[in-house]
TrEMBL record:
GO CC, any one term: endomembrane system
Organismal lineage: Eukaryota, Metazoa, Spiralia, Lophotrochozoa, Bryozoa
Main location: membrane
Family, similarity comment: Belongs to the DRAM/TMEM150 family.
Topology relative to the membrane: Multi-pass membrane protein
Domain CWH43-like N-terminal residue range list: 12-229
Name by which UniProt lists this protein: CWH43-like N-terminal domain-containing protein
One of the Pfam families matching this protein, by short name: Frag1
Length: 247
């Protein structure tokens, strides 16, 4: 590999860090914007993440930033997939086919979660609720599944690429994400069952959602240390002259 390629790959570790920061930055901007425009209640209540980007003009900012975050997270997930594949192939030649299947499954699950993030931004609650809920389900439920799949893959890569401390930290991130996913769903259901009269149930749900989202963002940041040991080469694009001459 040329020095130019090595130089560009040196900063690859920034990709998961940018992914981690993209989500809370998006949420803080949309929350502040919605409060400034008095589209959410800033006293006595705390909104769901989606409620901060439901009404214009903050819905435009919310959608654009989430689309960017979805693309960045998708890139991170793909690089993580390729990195893990190469680790199994070259660092652990005796690795079972099951590990490769888990890695491929994690790629599919992660990409679907990124698609869900984009759907949450593009289909606001007030405009197309069903599509919004589908996107939220993909983002949060599959995002949580993806985090546990990374725990499994990290266990398979212990000693070879993943440190034991990082493995345990990812378990903690996944546990927190799962716990607050349950809190989000249970709080929302209790709030509905009580005719939306008990505000504490809503707060349980909304606060849990924010913590869950931050937990998923932190998971991406944990890839940074391993991305430092990874290099990316530019794809090769070739012209098929026979195809051109036949036109």
């Amino acid at each position: 590999m040329s020095n130019k390629h090595c130089s560009s790959s040196r900063y690859l570790f920034l990709l998961p860090l940018i992914t981690c920061l993209a989500f809370p930055i998006t949420f803080v901007i949309s929350y502040g914007y919605s409060i400034a425009n008095k589209n959410v209640n800033s006293t006595g209540d705390f909104p769901y993440i989606s409620e901060t980007g439901t009404k214009p003009p903050e819905s435009c900012v919310f959608g654009q930033l989430l689309n960017i975050a979805a693309v960045i997270s998708g890139l991170t997930i793909y690089v993580r997939y390729r990195q893990t594949h190469q680790a199994f192939k070259h660092l652990i030649p005796s690795s079972s086919k099951n590990n490769y299947r888990w890695n491929t499954a994690a790629l599919v699950v992660g990409m679907c979660a990124s698609l869900g993030v984009s759907m949450v931004g593009n289909f606001q609650m007030d405009n197309l609720l069903i599509a919004h809920y589908i996107g939220a389900g993909l983002a949060f439920v599959l995002g949580t599944v993806y985090s546990w799949m990374q725990v499994y893959l990290s266990y398979s890569l212990l000693v070879y690429m993943c440190s034991r401390a990082m493995f345990y930290f990812r378990i903690v991130c996944s546990f927190i994400t799962t716990l607050f996913l349950i809190g989000t769903l249970v709080g929302a259901q209790l709030y509905q069952n009580n005719n939306k009269q008990v505000l504490s149930y809503r707060l349980l749900s909304t606060i849990s959602e924010w913590i869950m989202a931050l937990g998923l963002a932190v998971l991406f940041a944990t890839f940074a240390s391993e991305f430092k040991a990874t290099k990316v080469e530019k794809p090769r694009i070739s012209i098929i002259q026979e195809k051109l001459s036949s036109r």
